[in-house]
Design goal:
Layout (H helix, E strand, L loop, with lengths): L3 E4 L2 E4 L5 E5 L5 H9 L4 H9 L1 E6 L6 H10 L3 H4 L5 E4 L4 E4 L11 H7 L4 E5 L5 H4 L10 E5 L8 H4 L4 H5 L9 H17 L4 E5 L3 H5 L5 H19 L3 E5 L5 E2 L9 E3 H9 L4 E4 L16 E6 L5 H9 L4 E6 H8 L9 E5 L4 E3 L15 E2 L7 E6 L17 H8 L2
Parallel strand pairs: 3-9, 3-10, 7-8, 7-9, 12-17
Antiparallel strand pairs: 1-2, 4-19, 5-6, 10-19, 11-18, 13-14, 14-16, 15-16
Helix pairs in contact: 1-11, 9-11, 12-13
The protein binds zinc ion (ZN).
Length: 412
């Protein structure tokens, strides 16, 4: 095996322990701090005392797909291409889900290691991410495995490198809207590591709990206590563990519990006339029960370039909007691909979300006051390791997509 691998412009040392990167979806650092304060995460408290306790910045838009792909590739969306869950396909102007590997512009770190002979496992909660996360991994039993908790019972040796996952774990497939979906990801990681010493593992949970429950609430603390028990087992199995998040999570409601929303399509249609623009919400995905497709980041596509400045002015006047950037400004600041952005990039203020029109959003299923993500208010994420990192090898600013770098290059 090689001493190191060069992947997407960065060098990664070959793992000498099983190396596990855990992405806790929607894990604002406050969740861990509150759970540790409530003595719900005794392992994590002990782990950071002997390991590394850092904060990092996620990618903007602070959404799931762009950040999971950044962590897995070690580079920003300008390089890997995945900049939302949902985008306008510039080739045909159609709004499409960006969960197809054809949108991916580089390979992943686990796929590169697998191709060089490492034993690699990638496990995600929701199946929407599986094709992207597993891109380039050629399934092989005991060598290259990728499956989702959501469709664990559909995994086959030929397509996922593993079969009979529910029997193996002794757990049924949980509801896609549950804490158990994330628990299955961690439990599967533990079980696989008990069977053999995998070289690289990526475990990615879902933010269903964080969308509904604030840090320090009993349900959130119980969720983190569950994670703590599994993390302790990974540590006991000798793994080097790096824990980060795809994005944070903030309250987006008023004192009465009603969601704070700026409906951008309505606003621009009223000020500029109909059919001048199209608002795209890159948070949109098939699982909208917990956020109603409302997040802190939106794109505006204008049919007439002369509308860019007037639209920017109208949007900037709304108190719910933090900042409006042109495509060039936004891509330069956030490291995003120029050909996959709108003419304008809109960021909401901390406690507010962006929608299209009220009638486009089904909020009837929001059973708790809205919590969501997307902008700079959710950019801070944890970066915790169970080993000490050499400070000279910690990048500044530290990004969540430095997780594999820290785990492989900075812990020895
Ligand atoms: Zn997420």
């Amino acid at each position: 095996m090689p001493e190191s691998l060069h992947v997407n412009g960065r060098d990664y040392l070959w793992p000498h322990d099983p190396t596990v990167v855990v992405c806790i979806d929607g894990c604002a650092p406050a969740y861990l701090e509150a759970a540790m304060a409530a003595h719900a995460m005794p392992f994590l408290r002990e782990m950071i005392d002997r390991g590394t306790d850092l904060r990092a910045e996620c990618v903007i838009p602070a959404f799931t797909n762009p950040n999971n792909l950044s962590i897995l590739t070690g580079v920003p969306p300008a390089v890997h291409g995945i900049c939302g869950n949902y985008v306008l396909d510039p080739s045909n102007g159609e709004a499409v889900m960006m969960n197809d590997p054809r949108f991916l512009r580089c390979g992943t770190i686990p796929a590169a290691f697998a191709a060089a002979g490492a034993r690699v496992a990638v496990i995600t909660a929701k199946d929407k991410l599986r094709a992207l996360l597993g891109h380039g991994l050629i399934p092989a039993v005991g060598r290259a495995v990728c499956f989702s908790a959501e469709c664990a019972d559909a995994a086959t040796v030929a397509t996922h490198g593993i079969a009979d996952v529910t029997d193996l774990l002794g757990r049924p497939v949980p509801s896609v809207y549950s804490a158990e979906l994330s628990e299955l990801v961690l439990a599967a990681g533990v079980t696989l590591l008990e069977q053999q010493a995998w070289d690289l593992m990526y475990l990615s949970t879902t933010d269903y709990i964080q969308h509904k429950h604030a840090p320090g609430t009993p349900t959130a603390d119980a969720f983190y206590a569950m994670l703590d028990r599994h993390l302790a087992r990974l540590d006991a199995l000798g793994a080097t563990i790096a824990i980060t998040a795809d994005h944070g999570m903030s309250a987006k409601h008023d004192a009465a519990g009603q969601p704070r929303v700026v409906y951008l399509q309505t606003l621009l249609d009223e000020r500029m006339g109909p059919d001048r623009c199209r608002v795209i919400l890159p948070i949109t995905d098939p699982y909208v029960v917990h956020h109603g497709a409302l997040g802190g980041f939106a794109l505006v596509y204008l049919s007439d370039p002369a509308d860019v400045e007037p639209a920017r002015k109208h949007l900037s006047e709304d108190p719910g909007i933090r900042e409006v950037l042109t495509r060039t400004e936004g891509c330069a600041r956030f490291g995003l691909p120029l050909d996959r952005q709108g003419d304008l990039m809109v960021l909401a203020v901390d406690d507010t979300t962006l929608g299209t029109r009220a009638q486009d959003h089904d909020l009837s299923q929001l059973t708790e006051p809205l919590r969501s993500h997307g902008g700079p208010s959710e950019q801070g994420v944890p970066m915790l390791l169970n080993r000490r990192c050499d400070p000279a090898r910690v990048p500044t600013p530290l990004r969540n997509f430095d997780a594999f770098h820290l785990a492989l290059n900075a812990t020895r």
